Amino acid sequence: MLDFNYNALSGRVIFGPGKLSQTRAEAEALGMTKVLVLSTPHQRDLAENVADLLGDLVTGIYDQAVMHVPVETIADVMDVVSQLDIDGCVSIGGGSTVGLAKAIALESGLPILAIPTTYAGSEMTPVWGMTKDGIKTTGRDPRVLPKTVIYDPELTVGLPDFISGPSGLNAIAHCVEALYSETQNPVTSLMAEEGIRALGESLPVIVKQPDNMEARAKALYGAWLSGTVLGAVGMAIHHKLCHTLGGSFNLPHAEVHTVVIPHATYFNRDHAPQAMSAIGRALNVEADEAAGALYDLAVSIGAPVSLKDIGMLEGDLDKAADIATTNPYYNPRAIDRAGVRELLENAYRGTRPGSE
Ligand code: NAD
User: Fold this and answer.
1) Does the pLDDT at position 14 exceed 90?
2) DSSP-assigned letter for residue 328
3) What residues are paired with 23 via a beta bridge?
4) Which site in 101, 238, 239, 264 is 20 to 30 Å from 329, CA atoms measured?
C-alpha cells in the first residue's frame, strides 16, 4: 500500500556540456554583485576561469578549501567574507569546496551558486559539515542548499580514474541507501534506481576513456540524482559506518563508501527486498546478486574493495563496531554488534559479499 511523505527541495539546475559559460547570467539571476569564488588550491586555475567569466561581479577568490571543512578554515574565510563585503559565493570543485560555501551560508545566509566537478552530490543537499579537533559535526539547514547548480560534464574530464571511480561509487551508495531509507518514497526511489543505472553504465566507460563526453554526462546525471535523494531522505547503516570510519580513523571519504557499500547492501539483503530488486534492475542482475554486483563494479573499474588497502588497521575493527553501534541510524535490519563486526571484518578483508 502506498503511504509516504515527500519533501521536494527547491533549487535550479542547469545541465550540459559548456554550461559553465552561463555562470555570469546565473549569478546575476540570483542578484549577486560581489562574488567570492571558492576552490581548493589544486583547482585555483579553474577558479580563475570562473572569475574571468563573472567579470566585474567578482570581488575575490579564496582557494583554501580542504576536506571536511575545518573550523580554522571557516574562521579564515569568514574574515575574507566580511573584509570584502560579498553578497554571494560561487563554489567550483567537489564536496570539500561546496562544503566551505555551505559553512559561509550557515553563518551569513549568503546564497550559493555551485559548480560541481566530482560526483559527491553535496551541492543538492541542505546538509552541512564542519570539523573541530578532529571531530566532524553535521546538520541540516535550508540556508546552505545552493540556490543554483551548474553541472557541466566538461569540467569532470580532468577527474582522474582513481578519483572518478570512488566518487561515482560514493554517489551510488547514496542511491542504495535511499532505496531502503526510513523515509523512502516512490519519487526518490525512481531517482535512486536511475542514478545507480546511470553510474553503473558510465563508470566502466570513464575509466577506459576519461574524455568520453557521453559517459561523463551520464555519470554527472547519476551524481545529480544521487545528491537529490541524499538531500531528500534519511540514510542508514552504510552512512553511519562511513561517518565512523572517515571521522574516527581518518580514512578517505569516497574510498570508504566504495569499500563498504557492497557489504552494507549484503547486510540488508533479506530486509529490503524492493531495494535489492531495484539495484538488480539497475545493474542487470537478479535481486539476490545486488551486493555482489556492486562489488564487481568496484573491481571492474579498479576501485578499492578492502578497508585494509585504504589504511584501516585490523586492531581498530572492534572500536569501529562499538562506535557504529552507538546511537545507530534507522536501518531496515536491526543493528546488532556481532552483525556489524562481521560486516566490518568482510570489508576489511575485501571479500566478495556472500563468498565468505
Ligand atoms: P573533494 O572535494 O575533496 O575533491 C578531491 C580532490 O579532487 C581535491 O583536491 C579537488 O581539488 C580535486 N578535484 C575535484 N574535482 C576535480 C576535477 N574535475 N579534476 C581534477 N581534480 C579535481 O572530494 P569530494 O569527494 O568531491 O568531496 C568530499 C567531501 O564532501 C567530504 O568532506 C564529504 O564529507 C563531503 N560531502 C558532503 C555531502 C553533504 O551533503 N554535505 C555530500 C557528499 C560529500
Assistant:
1) yes
2) P
3) none
4) 101
- For residue 286, count other CB atoms closer than 10 A to its CB: 12
119 closest CA partner among 229, 226, 22: 226
CB 310 within 8 A of CB 252: yes
Work out the burial of residue 330: count CB atoms within 10 Å of its CB; fewer than 13 is exposed, 13-18 middle, 19 or more buried. middle
pLDDT (tens digit per residue) in 102-138: 999 999 999 999 999 999 999 999 999 998 887 778 8
Exposed, middle or buried: residue 268 (CB in 10 Å: 0-12, 13-18, 19+)?
A: buried
Q: Give SS3 for 270.
A: coil
| Nearest atom, ligand 1, residue 136 CA | 34
CA of 227 relative to ligand 1 center, distance in Å = 13
Question: Does ligand 1 come within 6 angstroms of the Cβ of 226?
Answer: no
Q: Rounded distance, CA 318 to CA 278, Å? A: 33
Shortest-distance Cα residue to atom 22 of ligand 1? 159
pLDDT score of 355: 86
Q: Whose CA is nearest to atom 2 of ligand 1?
A: 94
Length in residues, the chain: 356
Are 111 and 32 contacting, i.e. CB atoms less than 8 angstroms apart? yes
Q: How many helices (H) and strands (E) does the chain have?
A: 13, 8
Place 298 in a pLDDT band, splitting at 50, 70 and 90. Answer: very high
Instruction: Please state which of the four CATH numbers 1.10.357.10, 1.10.10.10, 1.10.357.140, 1.20.1090.10 is assigned to the domain occupying 161-349.
Output: 1.20.1090.10
Architecture of the domain defined by 12-156:
3-Layer(aba) Sandwich (3.40)
Check pocket membership of 156 for ligand 1, CB cut-off 6 A: yes
CB 163 less than 6 A from any atom of ligand 1: yes
